[in-house]
Amino acid sequence: MKIYTALEEIERPFNRPALTIGNFDGVHLGHQALFKKVVELANQKAGDKVALTFHPHPMKVLRPENPPKLICTLEQKIELIMAAGIEHLICLPFTREFAKTSATEFVEDILCGKIGVEDLVVGYDYACGRGREGNIEFLKNMGRKLGFNVHVISPVRIDGVIVSSTAIREFVKKGDMKMVRKMLGRFYQIRGVVRKGKRRGGPVVGFPTANLSINPEDLCPKPGVYAVQVIHGEKLYNGVVNIGFNPTFGDGRLGAEVHIFNFDKDIYGHEIKVNVVERIRDEKRFSGPRELAEQIRKDIEKAKEILSSIKQ
After folding, report:
1. pTM beyond cutoff 0.85
2. Mind listing the domains of the chain with CATH numbers?
3. Are the beta carbons of 149 and 119 closer than 8 angstroms?
4. Is residue 246 predicted with pLDDT exceeding 70?
């Protein structure tokens, strides 16, 4: 997949492109339906498969006092869009100046002038341009005028709930990782570099852990203990994670302590990916290492039971 980070990098319009546009936070099932349609339309014409997104998230620019917590990093978003079959990803910088672009300018100058869109695929609630003035009807009218087709994708529903980034954020915050998995079509994932902690997990408690810092601005599951899958390098391991503030030892910092089953490698400074599978219990304070160790044994048993039932 080729990535463009500025309009100037697009030297000429694409070949009969099918295009979709969005923030694509989470690349959930609703987004995947857009990409699937783009691939289908482009294949019919032997055209290019193109997606247009923005970085940072527009709300971080327009509402900096209360920006959304993102479901996935830009790196993960790019990986997922590529896996969906998109060949060209335009990732434009979103600024206050860009936000002033009118819907007409956006369609005429960017979609038609730069990209050369033939088929535009959008979600049922999509709107573009300054103040979201370019709604679906506007796009259809512009398509008739400028010679491109508009394809509107209906909402995807899971258990009666419309799949959206907003809904997924709420389920993540509640710790309902089963519903999150249904809406994403995959497990929710935390990524981070293993840092050196207090080294109490192995010597004191008897269960060594890989410690990840969590930025308070990042979307984090509700504090508690979860069954997880851990990806290190190309290998997948099972494990259990405590997400929270470590009340027993009073650290007070938000973090994730991952105990990886049957694993004894030194991975300080390594990146790991943690698939959060299912919530086991709330985080709580224990009287000391012995009581904590006994609870961890129970958590491990429960996690193994949960993970053994997963169908890959």
Report:
1. yes
2. 2-156 (3.40.50.620), 187-308 (2.40.30.30)
3. yes
4. no
